[in-house]
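User: Sequence recovery, please. Input:
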C-alpha cells in the first residue's frame, strides 16, 4: 500500500475552482486516490447563495455532509434543511439543488459515487477566469459530457421562492 492510500489527504487535494466571487469547488479526493470508487469535493457558499439551478445526474449518487452553516435542499418536490454534522442523500436520476439558507458563509463536502464528476468543476472553472459569467452554451456542452441535465429556467423561481442570490455562473442566456 502506498503512502497515498492512507493518512492525511494533503497531496491529493486539487486546485481551488472559484465561480465568480462566491461559490468554490475543490476536489479533496479524486479518481486516482480512490481508484474510481468515489470522490470528495468541498464547496464554499456565500450567504443566501444558490449552488446551481435544478439539475440531475445520470451517472452518480451524491451525499452532502454539512460542515458549516445551514443548507437548504430541494430534492424532487421535498424541501428541507440540514445543519452541521448532517448527511443528505441525493440519488442519481433525481432533480435537485441546494443553497446556503443562512446569512453566514457555509461549507459542505460532497461525496460523489462513482468518481469522475469532480472533473466537471475543473472543466467549467475555465469559464470564470475573467470574472464574467460564462457562455451558457459552453457550460451546457460540458454538462452533457458528464451526463448532467441543468434546468436553467428554474433559476428565477428558486431565487424568489427561497430568497436567494443568483449564482454568478448562471448570469448568461439559457440555452435554447
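Assistant: Recovered sequence (176 residues):
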Amino acid at each position: 500500500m502506498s503512502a497515498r492510500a492512507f493518512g492525511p489527504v494533503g497531496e491529493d487535494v486539487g486546485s481551488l475552482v472559484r465561480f465568480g466571487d462566491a461559490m468554490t469547488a475543490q476536489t479533496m479526493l479524486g479518481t486516482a486516490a480512490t481508484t474510481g470508487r468515489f470522490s470528495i469535493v468541498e464547496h464554499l457558499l456565500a450567504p443566501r447563495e444558490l449552488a446551481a439551478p435544478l439539475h440531475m445526474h445520470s451517472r452518480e449518487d451524491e451525499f452532502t455532509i454539512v460542515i458549516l452553516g445551514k443548507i437548504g435542499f430541494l430534492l424532487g418536490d421535498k424541501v428541507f434543511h440540514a445543519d452541521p454534522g448532517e448527511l443528505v442523500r441525493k440519488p442519481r436520476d433525481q432533480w435537485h439543488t441546494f443553497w446556503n439558507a443562512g446569512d453566514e458563509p457555509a461549507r459542505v463536502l460532497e461525496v460523489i459515487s462513482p468518481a469522475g464528476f469532480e472533473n466537471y468543476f475543473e472543466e467549467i472553472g475555465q469559464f470564470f477566469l475573467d470574472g464574467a459569467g460564462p457562455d451558457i452554451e459552453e457550460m451546457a456542452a460540458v454538462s452533457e459530457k458528464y451526463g448532467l441535465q441543468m434546468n436553467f429556467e428554474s433559476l428565477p423561481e428558486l431565487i424568489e421562492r427561497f430568497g436567494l442570490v443568483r449564482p454568478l455562473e448562471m448570469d448568461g442566456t439559457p440555452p435554447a
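Residues 136-145 form the longest helix (10 residues).
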